Amino acid sequence: MAAWVFGSTGTGHATAMSDLDLAVLIDGDISLMEELSLSADLAVALGRDDVDLLVLNSARNDLQHAVMSQGEIIYDRIL
Prior knowledge:
- It is a single chain.
- The chain starts with a strand and ends with a strand.
- It has 79 residues and is α+β, with helices and mostly antiparallel strands.
- The chain has helices spanning 7-11, 32-46, 61-70; strands at residues 2-6, 20-25, 51-55, 72-76.
- It contains three helices and four strands, in the order βαβαβαβ.
- Strands 3-2-1-4 form a four-stranded mixed sheet, with helices on both faces.
- It has one domain (2-11, 20-74).
- It is 38% helix and 27% strand.
- The model has no long low-confidence stretch (mean pLDDT 91).
C-alpha cells in the first residue's frame, strides 16, 4: 500500500479554495462502496470535507504516472 498527495497541495500551490487530492495504491481489489467509505473516513480523520480520493489501482495509466512522478508520497509500505 502507498499513498500520495498530489494536485495543488502536493506541489505547494494550494490556496484557500483548493481541495485535498489523495491517491492510494491498495493491496488487492477495492469495491466502490469500500472506496467511498475510505474517502469518508479520510475526510473525518483529516477534518476536511474536500478530500478527493483517487484509487490508482483503477486509474488510467496517465493519471497513475502523473501522481507517481509529480505527487508527494506520504506513505509507503512494501507490497
